[in-house]
Amino acid sequence: MSELPALPVTFRPGRTRAVLLTAGVAIFVVITAVALLLDKLGPGERLSFVLTGALMFGVLAMLARVKVVADESGVTVVNIATRRRLDWAEILQVNLRPGDPWVFLNLSDGTSLPALGIQPGIAKQHAIADARALRALAEAHAIKEPEDREG
Question: What is the sign of the dihedral through the CA atoms of 69, 75, 76 and 77?
């Protein structure tokens, strides 16, 4: 097995994040420029253009915020609109099957949690490496815990 990453470690789709944030800034700048350059618009209409651009940037920024943070005590999964903290013992399995849009965590309560911070979209090999690293961390902590309870 390869060496485990040093904790804490943050997994996020870097290229996807860069594309989303760049597109968000570009959209905001273009819509704002159009609002300022159109002479026939009144102040309220200009403001509505700027607010629309800001709203579009905000949506893309929410999509770009996804991440998975692993530390000594567990994992924090930040998805588009939610954040969930998990202890290592809650994570039974880390899955990234061919065709999956992102990693899924099978949890001890019988549910599955999508972890959008690891997604193969633009950088497939990087996502596979991140999924393997998170799986190795989960397995290492699952194995270590019963020993801690005995001792």
Answer: positive
Q: How far apart are CA 48 and CA 45, in angstroms?
A: 5
DSSP letter at 66?
-
The model's pLDDT over 83-129, given as tens digits with 9 standing for 90+, comes to 999 999 999 999 999 999 999 999 999 999 999 999 998 889 999 99
Task: Return the pLDDT at 146.
Answer: 45
Q: Is the peptide bond before 8 cis (omega within 30 degrees of 0)?
A: yes
Q: 9-11 and 67-71: which strand pairing?
A: antiparallel
Torsion angle of the four alpha carbons 52, 58, 59, 62, in this order, in degrees rounded to the nearest 10: 180
For 107, the 3-state DSSP assignment is: strand
Beta bridge pairs of residue 91: 107
Cβ atoms of residues 21 and 62 within 8 Å:
no
Q: What pLDDT was estimated at residue 35?
A: 96
- Measured in whole angstroms, how far is the alpha carbon of residue 35 from the centre of its chain? 33
